[in-house]
Every structure is written in structure tokens, then in C-alpha cells.
Design a protein that fits this description.
The protein is an all-alpha fold. It has 2 domains: 9-65, lambda repressor-like DNA-binding domains (434 Repressor (Amino-terminal Domain), Orthogonal Bundle); 81-119, no CATH class. 44% of the residues lie in helices and 0% in strands. The chain has helices at residues 9-16, 21-28, 32-39, 47-57, 84-95, 106-110. Helix 2 (21-28) crosses helix 3 (32-39).
Length: 119
């Protein structure tokens, strides 16, 4: 799943509630640059940040962020593997017998906990 790199509704909700990125960051336990990146669709929020956003705004995070940003909401694989770590994670999956070749049914059959955009 690719980061959307588009303005997220979260930005609208922050201003509608009269908050700033810094106030949201303080409330959810991160820095303001991370909040700004979430608002622009440039970073995945952690499961803890997702829960904190839901508590802060009193609404489901699905209203604030695109589904593409919520693939780690259940915390199955956090933090996301990047760089060489992603290669090692792929080897680990293969060792456990998980098919990691990208065919059309891969995500639904091998990683059913992974939430994709259309689901």
C-alpha cells in the first residue's frame, strides 16, 4: 500500500475544533511535524496514535484519514518495515510458509488482517 500524499480530512477537523498541530501532537503523544505529515498523507499513524485521535475527536479515525493510512491500525506489524528490514521481514514470512509473491489474492488469503483501501 502506498502513502496517498494528499491532504487528509484530519486537517479540517483540527481547525474545526480550534486546535493546532502542536496541541494535537501533545494530546496524542508525538511531535507537530508528525501530525502535519499525517495531515498531508505522508506517514502512517501508529496504532496508539490512531486510538488517541479517536479519543481526542470523539469519532472514528475512518472519518479523518484515508483507508490507505490505516493499514497498521490493528498493530499486527508495527513499526512498518522499511529498507533492509523489509527484506528480512519477507525472508521471515517465507520461512513461516507465507506466500509473499504479489498475486491478486495474496493479501486476502495470506494476510487477512491487513485492511486494504476498498474494504
Amino acid at each position: 500500500m502506498v502513502l496517498p500524499h494528499q491532504r487528509q480530512p484530519l486537517l479540517k477537523w483540527i481547525s474545526w475544533h480550534g486546535l493546532t498541530a502542536q496541541k494535537v501532537a501533545d494530546a496524542i503523544g508525538c511531535n507537530k511535524f508528525r501530525v502535519k505529515n499525517m495531515c498531508q498523507g505522508m506517514t502512517y499513524p501508529s496504532p496508539d496514535e490512531i486510538r488517541a485521535l479517536e479519543r481526542l475527536f470523539g469519532m472514528p479515525v475512518d472519518v479523518m484519514l484515508e483507508p490507505a493510512l490505516l493499514i497498521y491500525r490493528d498493530g499486527k506489524v508495527w513499526p512498518p518495515h522499511i529498507g533492509p528490514a523489509s527484506i528480512h521481514y519477507e525472508y521471515e514470512l517465507r520461512a513461516r510458509g507465507v506466500k509473499v509473491d504479489p498475486d491478486p489474492d495474496f493479501f486476502s488469503t495470506q494476510l487477512p488482517w491487513l485492511k486494504l483501501g476498498g474494504e
